[in-house]
Specification:
By secondary structure, the chain is mainly alpha-helical. The protein is 71% helix and 0% strand. The protein has one domain. It is elongated and about 75 Å long. The protein starts with a helix and ends with a helix.
């Protein structure tokens, strides 16, 4: 508001406001890389959760292996009995996970 603007102007004129740091191009690039990686990790989590949701809907017990996308997890997943349309959805999600992992 008007009072705050006046106060800030007076502080700036008196030299009491420190200058702000502006990131350089390299820092901005790193920030974008970190943000993109965060988005990819979140997307991978959503895709994995969709696979777990499909399995839970058909009362398939939780995978005993650390991860569904490693070799043992995929072998376990291939042995589970689910309807064909759900199997196709699981396979699509696994392909999406592979793409996101590249």
């Amino acid at each position: 508001d008007k009072v705050d603007a006046g106060t800030l102007a007076n502080l700036y004129a008196a030299g009491y406001l420190p200058e702000i740091w502006t990131p350089d191009a390299a820092t901005e690039r790193l920030r974008r890389l970190v943000a993109r990686r965060y988005q990819i990790v979140r997307h991978r989590t959503r895709v994995k959760n969709e696979v777990y949701s499909i399995l839970a809907a058909h009362l398939v017990p939780k995978c005993p292996h650390a991860d569904l996308v490693n070799q043992r997890g995929r072998a376990w997943l291939a042995r589970q009995v689910v309807p064909d349309d759900e199997r196709a959805a699981i396979e699509r999600n696994i392909r999406e996970l592979d793409r996101l992992t590249e």
